[in-house]
From TrEMBL:
It holds the Pfam family PRISE. InterPro entries: NAD(P)-bd_dom_sf (IPR036291), PRISE-like_Rossmann-fold (IPR055222). The lineage of its organism: Bacteria, Bacillati, Actinomycetota, Actinomycetes, Mycobacteriales. PANTHER family: 3-OXO-DELTA(4,5)-STEROID 5-BETA-REDUCTASE. This is Nucleoside-diphosphate-sugar epimerase. It comes from the Bacteria. Residues 56-351 form the PRISE-like Rossmann-fold domain.
């Protein structure tokens, strides 16, 4: 009989956590507990707990029953206006989670930590590329690094192991998330069409032609479980990306074709500013096409669009370590975008 596996997905309503739950559920091999403040709809295999992980007492009280947990998949996130301000809340949520579950879960085998290219300083400026897992750290503070340090220290002398997963920009279905590039592009293109304007790259001039890569949320979920379930992959980090590189000047025409739009030359602008007054346009689209009534705020990660489209330098990391150790799945990024747009249509989020 297969060993019983119980996963706690921390950040169950996130673009990463939500897609990880879908993957774990589809394998049929896991019992799953999802943690978020919002909670969620339970299924046969998934039970949601609404908890505020910033509150150590709430975490201790609500998570003390999780005695059967074998794997913790940590993908919660608290957004803040500056890089330095990200550290305290994001470290506190991880610490409160581990403090609440580790002492009661005698069969705990693994804690998986979701990180990103911020470990390499990708958000700060032109960093060394391709970034490798063995690259030296950059000037602190950096919440991903502090989280990993906490796990490494906490793991010493225990029976469980850890892994750290470093995706590029993650693309998959989710609503109401601060970092959701596929939705930014889908809604921007939809609004461009509604307003009768061609699709223009809104980022910095150099960003149109820099090399970049994406990480499909489904591929990421598979890689995360892969790294968490075999001893040889324990206690180390993995870059996880689709496996192909691209430049926006090549990608944008493919996206425009999907939405039946012309492409015009780039026009650098802040999406956060120019899309701020477009709520009535969105509400009009929802009414006209009978879409799911999704509030404009839930489809508006415009600041994240500005952030990603502002990278006028290459943002790439070497994903070969995971492939050398046996993770071979790859995703064609253009196809990934179109698949996500089709999914958004099928869910009646966009027309
Ligand atoms: N999205 C990307 O493109 C991307 C790329 C690379 C790396 N990453 C990294 O991956 C990690 C996860 O990112 P994400 O984009 O998936 O985040 P996200 O979509 O914002 O999801 C965050 C999750 O954390 C939960 N959460 C937030 N505060 C909480 C609290 N106080 N108590 C309990 N749950 C809480 C949220 O649910 P509630 O709001 O309901 O609480 C949500 O489920 C982050 O470290 C991020 O830096 C993301």
């Amino acid at each position: 009989m297969a060993k019983r596996r119980v996963a706690v997905v921390v950040g169950a309503r996130g673009v990463i956590g939500g897609n990880l739950i879908d993957h774990l559920e589809a394998t049929g091999e896991w019992e799953i507990v999802g943690l978020s403040r919002r909670g969620g709809v339970d299924t046969d295999r998934v039970r949601h707990i609404a908890v505020d992980l910033l509150d150590e007492h709430d975490a201790a009280e609500k998570l003390s029953e999780l005695r059967d947990v074998t794997h913790i998949f940590y993908a919660a996130y608290q957004d803040r206006p500056s890089w330095a301000e990200l550290v305290a809340p994001n470290v506190a949520m991880l610490v409160n989670t581990v403090n609440a579950i580790e002492p009661v879960a005698a069969g705990l085998e693994h804690i998986s930590l979701m990180q990103g290219y911020k470990v390499y300083g990708a958000h700060l400026g032109p960093f060394k590329t391709p970034a490798r897992e063995s690259d030296p750290p950059h000037m602190p503070p950096e919440f991903n690094v502090d989280q990993q340090q906490f796990l490494e220290d906490r793991q010493r002398g225990t029976r469980w192991t850890w892994s750290a997963i470093r995706p590029s920009v993650v693309c998959g279905f989710a609503l109401g998330n601060p970092m959701n590039l596929a939705l930014v592009i889908a809604v921007y293109a939809t609004m461009s069409k509604e307003l009768g304007v061609p699709l223009r790259f809104p980022g910095k001039p150099g960003a149109y032609t820099s090399l970049i890569e994406m990480t499909d949320a489904g591929l990421l979920a598979e890689a995360t479980v892969w790294a968490a379930t075999t001893p040889e992959r324990a206690n180390q980090a993995f870059n996880i990306n689709n496996g192909d590189l691209f430049r926006w000047d090549e990608m944008l025409p493919k996206i425009a074709e999907f939405f039946e739009l012309d492409v015009a030359p780039p026009l650098p602008m802040s999406m956060d500013v120019v899309m701020a007054d477009k709520e009535p346009v969105w509400n009009g689209l929802v009414a006209k096409h009978g879409l799911e009534p999704t509030p404009y705020s839930d489809v508006s990660s415009w600041a994240f669009g500005d952030f990603v489209f502002g990278w006028d330098y290459d943002v790439i990391a070497d994903g070969s370590k995971a492939r050398r150790l046996g993770f071979h799945r790859h995703v064609e990024t253009a196809q990934m975008f179109l698949d996500i747009f089709r999914d958004l249509r099928a869910r009646k989020i966009i027309p």
